[in-house]
Structure formats: C-alpha cells, structure tokens
Design brief:
Layout lengths: L7 H14 L4 H13 L3 H14 L4 H13 L3 H14 L5 H12 L3 H14 L4 H13 L3 H14 L4 H14 L4
Length: 179
C-alpha cells in the first residue's frame, strides 16, 4: 500500500524489515529494489536485483529493472546485455526489442538498434511509435530518403502525428527537396 501511494521511504523501512526476517522472499526483495530505484538509490537497487537474478535467473522483471538502472546510469552496453537476457528468456516479449533498440542507440550501436526495431515491427507492424523511431534512426544514419518514406507511412496512418511532420520536413531539407 505504501508503495502504491509513492511513500517509498516508509515502504523501504517495512520492506527492509521483511527481507531481514525472510531473506528468501524474492517478492519482498524485488519490491525493496523498486523502492531503492524510485528513491534513486541505484547501486543498492542494482546489488539487490543482481542477487535476486542470481537466485532466480528467470526473474524477468528484475532483469528489466537492471537494464533500466544501467540506462539511467549511462551504461548502455550493460543495459543491452540485460535486454539480450530478457529476449533469450522470453522471446515473445515484444516491448523488450524497443527497449533494447533505445539502449543500442544510446550506446552508439545504430545497426543493432535498427535490427531490434525491425524485429519489433515484424511482430507489431501497426505500431506507429516504433515505425517513427525507425525513421528517426534512418535519419540519424544519414539515410534521409528512407527516413522520409517511413515518416510518410506514419503520416498516412496518423495525419496529425506532429513529430512525423517535423521529421519529414527535416528529411526533405537534407535531401534538398521542397517540403
């Protein structure tokens, strides 16, 4: 209850007591790590989650949080490793491909980012957000014509997608074409 009310400091005290009484309680350890994360105590959260994953290797939410912490602390390559483990553990979890694409992009691995976005779009081709991200990635890689085509596709599905309008105009400027 305290956690749901975002009273993390109070929840932290209760969860620390619970974990001390029952160190094998993986749910309590996970919830404690979430409190640490919400209080921006990343190293404590990371340590707790790493121990939890060592004990329960397929704890998918713990892996997801470890990846999130790695990204928040500027460790994009480490985040990619956690996302890879998530994909391996649960290949049907489509949204992991989006997270991995963003981490790859943050880490400068644009080819990997594109691969992950394409994997996501193969399963969910209607997702305009992912399609838009792919257009942005093409633009970032200097593939302005490809980017423009993708932005046009997004705008065909959602003519009011403001970011796609701006990005299409930006791509046209790079191509030297009139908007």
């Amino acid at each position: 209850l305290l956690e749901s009310e975002k009273r993390y400091s109070e929840a932290l005290e209760e969860l620390e007591r619970l974990v001390a009484l029952d160190p094998g309680n993986s749910e309590a350890r996970f919830r404690l790590a979430v409190c640490y994360l919400n209080l921006e105590r990343y190293e404590e959260a990371r340590g707790l989650l790493e121990r939890l994953v060592a004990a329960v290797p397929r704890h998918l939410e713990a892996l997801r949080l470890l990846a999130r912490i790695a990204r928040k602390t500027g460790q994009a390559k480490e985040a990619q490793g956690y996302y890879a483990r998530l994909v391996e553990a649960d290949p049907d979890r489509d949204e992991v491909h989006l997270d991995m694409a963003e981490a790859a992009r943050e880490g400068g691995d644009l080819a990997r980012a594109e691969t992950e976005l394409r994997a996501f779009l193969a399963k969910r081709p209607e997702d305009l957000g992912a399609r838009f991200q792919l257009g942005e990635l093409h633009h970032q890689r200097g593939r302005f014509k490809h980017a423009a085509e993708i932005f046009k596709t997004v705008l065909e599905k959602d003519p009011r997608h403001a970011a796609a309008h701006r990005s299409l105009a930006r791509s046209y400027r790079k191509l030297g074409e009139p908007e």
